[in-house]
Amino acid sequence: NLEASEELSRMSDEMKGLREAVTAAEAALQEEQASRETFRTHVEAEELRLYEQIRELEDQISFLKETLGDAEEAARVAKEEAQEARAAAAESEGLHSVEAMHAAVEEATNELT
């Protein structure tokens, strides 16, 4: 009977140790799960921040492309206007030359008469 009592006591101690080990393992598991959840939340927040940053950069790129397009169009128009102004100046110079020639001819005619 003494042997059985000692065996029961030993088994009871082993069960108590196993329960403590299970409780410790459960606590460690819960801690690990909480840590993973915290990490996942952090990663998701960082991912959202990066997506927002990418969207802002895409908006800036679109704006810069549009601004560049406007500047190129303005440069093209200015170039056309400059060419038109040069053509008008050349035409005006040509008219002055023709007028000067007419005046010289008229003057020469007047001198002859």
Concise synopsis of the structure shown:
The protein has one helix at 2-112. The protein is mainly alpha-helical.
Descriptive overview:
The protein has 113 residues and is mostly helical. It is built from 1 helix and no strands. The protein has one helix spanning 2-112. The longest helix has 111 residues, at 2-112. The N and C termini lie far apart (165 Å). The model has no long low-confidence stretch (mean pLDDT 91).
Indicate the topology.
Blueprint: H1 2-112
What brief labels describe this structure?
mainly alpha, 1 helix, 113 residues, 98% helix, rod-shaped
List SSEs in N-to-C order. Answer: H
Sketch the major β-sheet.
none
Q: How many strand elements?
A: 0
What's the alpha carbon Rg, rounded to whole Å? 48 Å
The N- to C-terminal Cα distance equals 165 Å
What are the low-pLDDT stretches, counting only 5+ consecutive residues below 50?
none
> Roughly what percent helix?
over 70%
Characterize the overall form.
rod-shaped
Q: How does the helix and strand content classify structurally?
A: mainly alpha
Assembly status: single chain
What is the number of helical segments per DSSP (H or I, 4+ residues)?
1
- Strand content of the residues, in percent? under 5%
| Integer average pLDDT | 91
